[in-house]
Amino acid sequence: MSPTTNSKMLLPHEIDQIDQIFKDVLRGLGLSRNSEAAEAIASRIINCYQGGVRESGALKHMIGFYKSAALDPNADTLRQGNQEVSMEEIAGGLNSRITPDELDMLQRTFDRVCIWCSIPRHGKRADLLARYITDQFREGLTDEAALFGDAMWREQNSEAARYRPDA
Asked: Which of 59-68, 82-91, 102-111 is predicted with the least confidence, judged by mean pLDDT?
């Protein structure tokens, strides 16, 4: 029996490729393999791969784009009108000299701060955070850990973080 393009069977080299992408995504998001979020991400990667998306960068982009839906196993599409903030759009515009690797680092930093601070990836707060991270990077803060720490401090000391509806 030979695999066809419509086959759902994965070959060993394909499983290795999916596993590497999965590890990269988890590392970038700071997630453990043994979490519900990791299971949802793995499922989304496999579904996209079997749907014909084979390129690593495209799969990672799709996982980033579908993060909010990936955590909801019943969601097949994103809610309309809640377009996520894209570091590529913010950092990549206006004759940007940011390399693809730097852009990946900025996206990882943005994603991690959003996860840690429970910031939805759409709306004004996410847009301001993405612009802040990009501005700090352009001003010379290029170390990922330092950029993450700076953005975390900003978010934890912002007005939005002080507002608690349960207080």
From this structure: 59-68
